[in-house]
Structure formats: structure tokens, C-alpha cells
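TL;DR need C-alpha cells for one chain.
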Amino acid sequence: MFQSFLVTLRTQLRTPSLLFWSVAFPVILATMFHGMFGDFGSFYNLRPLNAIVVADSNWTSAQQALVDALSSNDSSATDTAGSAPSTDESTDEATDEATDESSSTTVSALLNVTEVPTMADARRLLFDAGAGEELILAADADGTLSMTISDATFASINSTGESSDGGMAISVLDGILGMFNRRNVAIADIVAANPAALASPSFTALLAASPVGESLTRQVTLTNFQPDPVARYFYALLGMAALMTMSGAVVSVSRIQANFSALGMRRSLAPVSKIRQVAGGFLASWLVAAVSLLVGVAYVRYGCDVPIGGREWGAALAAVMATLTTTALGTLLGALPRASLAVKESLCSAVACLLSLFSGLYGSFAMELSDAIIRHAPLLALVNPAQQITNLFYDLLYYDSLVPFARTCGVLAVMAAVFVVLASLILRRTRHDHL
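>> reply
TL;DR here they are.
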């Protein structure tokens, strides 16, 4: 068995096509992904907006406290907001809601403020191309805040999309202003319907509630690690890369079958049992596949800067478990008795590409398809090796506990056992009338 291991190992290391598909191809594809999605994460970062505030007679301390809170880099703005009961709660609640809606995107200062006394001055400054101002914040007679966006800002958002940093900042600010206005209207309606409410200590305490010392805009993370919108594409890529490594096992098993080549005839007559030859080839193929996938994982993590939740050791274990399953699947495909080696290699590539479709590799449509399968047909996702390999890295990134990761490793181990048993049964039952 050891001799079969060494022969298979040397043969695979000297096969350029095998090394290309196992090592070079994932690195090339990851480089392309990095080029396409490298700046995608910046779309989820808010940048401060250059805002003009019309501080006229309609502008009150409540609106000023809100603007101070959104334009401050420290907690002093919160203390200022606390002096305006009717504003602080609205800004805190509105900002929290906007933060939740922006999927853990956070920024300490949302506005760079320039104050002017009149609306005419604000419009003049907004239309000045050299000033760099993007919007106007003003209050009408009933205290409602409004936002006016410049034509240049509107055109920029239309060209880059709402997912750009400026577009997302505008959306967050619009949500904050909407919450502020709705809250003020609600308070006005309550006071109009029941003026005695102002004399209620509980009501005034509710208005005066202020999280003093906390930032009005805060990051909320519900997972072990901050989500990365690009990571799942690279994880799906690693799933396909693992499946591509099974071609080594396909070739290894095919070369011990007597009806495929003269080498297979000689090996079938050797004084070494077929099970030992298969075991040696399996271990060598697994070793080459594991090292190849580890190269891909290392490149994705450090070359493309894709996070794995600080659990790089888990990513190495994931590569070992993933290649165990794919090597077993390659052994099963290689054991097919009547198909030629070329057909088996083509089948290997077809299986890898097809299963990767359902794990979300091929763009947003494939991601939506993968999500739909997980929601509505979880059993299909469970038996898909590409999906389970992808889940290994999800489990490391998003879960505090290692239980989901261990469960996925168990699923892959069961798959590997099933593939090996089926391959053994096929090889044991294969007989040849003549060679």
C-alpha cells in the first residue's frame, strides 16, 4: 500500500493538468473575483454628507440637537441632545432603526454641517459647484424637517446606485428625518388630544429619556463576525475548487482497472490486493487535494483578504474534511466499470460545475437559487457536497458556537463513507471475461 501511495503521489505531482485544475484554477478564479468584487464592500460604508442647515426662525433647539448628534464624532452630541427631550428620543430611535436597516453599517459622523441664515443663502451655496455641498436641511413653521438634494448628488446616486456610499448615507439620513418628523407629529397629536399629558411624570420622563454617554449611531452585530457581502462568493468558489480536486482520485482508481490500459492489466496481476492499491491511491489523492485546497484557502484569506472569522485553523480543518469527501466521490466516479477515463474526467468536471450552481457560485441568480433550495428543499442542500463545503466556511464566520461547524463536518464524513462503500462494492463486483 505504501508503494502504491508513493507511486500515485509522484504521478499526480508530475501531471500538469491535474495541478492546474487543483491549484492554479482556483487561484486564477479567486483573482478574478477579487478584481470584480474588491470594492463591493465599500458600498456598505457610510461617508459624511456635506449639508447646509438653514438656521432661520423655524429652526429650533430640537432640530439643532438632532443635527449636532449626527455631525458629532463623540458622545458630547448625545449630551446636547439630552437637553431637548422631544428630540433625543426621536434621534436615538430613528438612528437605531436606520442602523438596523443598513445591515450593521455604521459611521460616527453622518453630516458635515454648514449653517446659513436664510433659504436663499442655502440655495446659492448648494448651486455653487465649488462649494461641494450636497443637500439642504430646513424646518418649516410646524417644525417638520425637510431635505433638499442637489442635482449633482441626485445624478451621482442614479449613476452609482443606492448601494453606493453616498446613496446609502442619503437613505439613512432620510430614515432618521422621517422618524424624527413622525415622532414630533405623534407628540403634537397626543398633546392636542390630551393637554394634561404634559403634567404626567411618566410621559415627560419618556420624552426626556436619553442614553447619555452613548453614540447615537452604533453598530449592531448579530453574528460571530461582521458579515462580508462578498465572502459567500469566495466560499462557493472554494466548494467548486474542492470538487475539482477529485479528478486525481478518478485517475488513480482508473489506472488500476485492467480493462483501461496495459498498466491496469499489469497492476491487476501484481501480488498486491486491489484494496491496498485503492487505499494507497486514495490517501495520495487526498493528500494532494488537501494541500491544493489549502493553497486556495490561504490565497482567498490573505491574498484576497476574505475573512474567516478569525478561525484560520478551522479553515485548514475544513479543507481537509472537504477534500476527504471529494476524494471519496472521485473514487466512486473512477470505479465506474464501463466508462473510459476521458468520460470519467468529463463527468468529474460536469459534476463540479453542476453542484456549484446550486451552492451559489454563478452570481446573484445562483445565490437566490441556493437560498431557495435551503429554505424549501433542505434535503437537496444537505446531499450537495458543494453546498456543505461552502457551509463549512459560513459556520466559521457567522456562528459563535462550533457546533454547526462540527455538524457540517459530520455530514461530509458520512458522505465520504457512503462514497467509499459504493466504490468498494463496484470494484469488488467488477469481473472481466478477457483482457
